[in-house]
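Write out this protein's structure.
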Amino acid sequence: MELQENEKLITLKQASEVFGLPLFKFYRAAKAGQIPTYTLFNSRKYVKLREIAEIIEKSRASAGA
Protein backbone atom coordinates (compact mmCIF):
# COMPACT_ATOMS: atom_id res chain seq x y z
CA MET A 1 0.00 0.00 0.00
CA GLU A 2 1.48 3.30 -1.09
CA LEU A 3 0.81 6.57 0.73
CA GLN A 4 -0.19 9.63 -1.20
CA GLU A 5 2.38 12.42 -1.15
CA ASN A 6 0.31 14.63 1.16
CA GLU A 7 -0.21 11.76 3.63
CA LYS A 8 3.49 11.16 4.24
CA LEU A 9 5.00 12.22 7.52
CA ILE A 10 7.56 15.03 7.28
CA THR A 11 9.61 16.84 9.90
CA LEU A 12 8.69 20.27 11.20
CA LYS A 13 11.71 21.68 9.36
CA GLN A 14 10.55 20.19 6.08
CA ALA A 15 7.06 21.59 6.66
CA SER A 16 8.48 25.06 7.27
CA GLU A 17 10.36 24.84 3.97
CA VAL A 18 7.31 23.60 2.05
CA PHE A 19 5.00 26.32 3.37
CA GLY A 20 7.62 29.08 3.51
CA LEU A 21 6.94 29.81 7.17
CA PRO A 22 9.50 30.22 9.96
CA LEU A 23 10.43 27.01 11.76
CA PHE A 24 9.78 28.53 15.19
CA LYS A 25 6.09 28.92 14.29
CA PHE A 26 5.79 25.19 13.68
CA TYR A 27 7.55 24.39 16.95
CA ARG A 28 5.32 26.81 18.83
CA ALA A 29 2.12 25.45 17.23
CA ALA A 30 3.19 21.85 17.90
CA LYS A 31 3.98 22.59 21.56
CA ALA A 32 0.63 24.36 22.02
CA GLY A 33 -1.23 21.45 20.42
CA GLN A 34 -2.49 23.60 17.56
CA ILE A 35 -1.21 21.16 14.94
CA PRO A 36 -1.30 17.37 15.15
CA THR A 37 2.14 15.80 15.49
CA TYR A 38 3.36 12.23 15.31
CA THR A 39 6.38 10.68 17.00
CA LEU A 40 7.78 7.44 15.67
CA PHE A 41 10.84 5.78 17.23
CA ASN A 42 12.60 8.86 18.51
CA SER A 43 11.63 12.23 19.95
CA ARG A 44 11.48 13.93 16.54
CA LYS A 45 8.05 15.29 15.71
CA TYR A 46 6.43 14.72 12.33
CA VAL A 47 3.38 16.22 10.63
CA LYS A 48 1.23 15.43 7.60
CA LEU A 49 1.23 17.96 4.78
CA ARG A 50 -2.52 17.60 4.26
CA GLU A 51 -3.32 18.39 7.88
CA ILE A 52 -1.05 21.43 7.96
CA ALA A 53 -2.48 22.74 4.68
CA GLU A 54 -6.03 22.39 6.06
CA ILE A 55 -5.13 24.25 9.25
CA ILE A 56 -3.45 27.08 7.32
CA GLU A 57 -6.44 27.33 4.96
CA LYS A 58 -8.91 27.49 7.86
CA SER A 59 -6.90 30.18 9.62
CA ARG A 60 -6.73 32.27 6.44
CA ALA A 61 -10.48 31.87 5.88
CA SER A 62 -11.31 32.93 9.44
CA ALA A 63 -8.92 35.87 9.24
CA GLY A 64 -10.63 37.09 6.09
CA ALA A 65 -14.11 36.77 7.56
